[in-house]
Write a structure and sequence with these properties.
169 residues, alpha/beta, globular, binds flavin mononucleotide, Flavoprotein-like_sf
């Protein structure tokens, strides 16, 4: 049994929907490979994700919004809290990054990539960035509904990661 850990933070709902889509995609991939019982999918909000969860997993999805050109504070705190606790203990494992953004997302994506390079994780694909077209204060503070086409991109990335984990790639 392998475990896929999906760590997410979301303030207005977009990244949460993206994390859930990645979980659906991973479950579908395990079913398509006829290995539904070989993959455990653990969704954890960033504030509840700890070193034990990281160490118990063989693959990771990190999913959060971009805030002020970097990762949201709760997601950054997750990395700060756990970085040295698992350094040199998770290297070589695969990961994927999902970023929700108003109009950019590249700063947060770069930050996740740098942190995961430090952990020596392997990206299965470039980060998926979903731009919600939120730029005014009212748009940014509003609850978000991620378009289906973007959720499909998140499902596909979750599926790719699960497939690689189950096939031992
Ligand atoms: C304080 C704050 C700062 C933000 N800064 C950025 C930014 O630098 N770049 C960007 O593209 N979006 C920015 N946004 C917009 C959010 O990334 C966007 O609304 C995203 O969809 C939120 O995801 P969530 O619904 O998962 O919380 C910011 C939002 C907030 C609240």
């Amino acid at each position: 049994m392998k475990q896929l850990l999906i760590v997410w933070h979301s303030r207005t709902g977009a990244a949460q929907q993206m994390a859930q889509a990645a979980a659906r995609g991973a479950a579908s991939a395990a079913a398509a490979l006829e290995q539904p019982d070989d993959l455990r999918i653990e969704l954890r909000r960033a504030q509840d994700a700890d070193a034990d969860a990281l160490l118990a997993s063989q693959g990771f999805v990190f999913c959060a919004p971009e805030n002020l050109a970097s990762l949201s504070g709760e997601m950054k705190e997750f990395f700060d809290r756990n970085y040295y606790a698992v350094l040199d203990r998770i290297q070589g494992l695969p990961y994927a990054a999902l970023i929700s953004a108003g109009s950019d997302g590249s700063g947060a994506a770069r930050q996740v990539e740098r942190i995961c390079t430090g952990w020596r994780l392997t990206a299965v694909a470039p980060a998926v960035i979903v731009n919600m077209g939120a730029q005014t204060a009212a748009q940014i503070l509003a609850a978000k509904t991620v378009p289906t086409a973007d959720l499909v991109r998140c499902e596909e990335l979750g599926g790719l990661l699960a497939g690689m984990m189950l096939m031992g790639a």
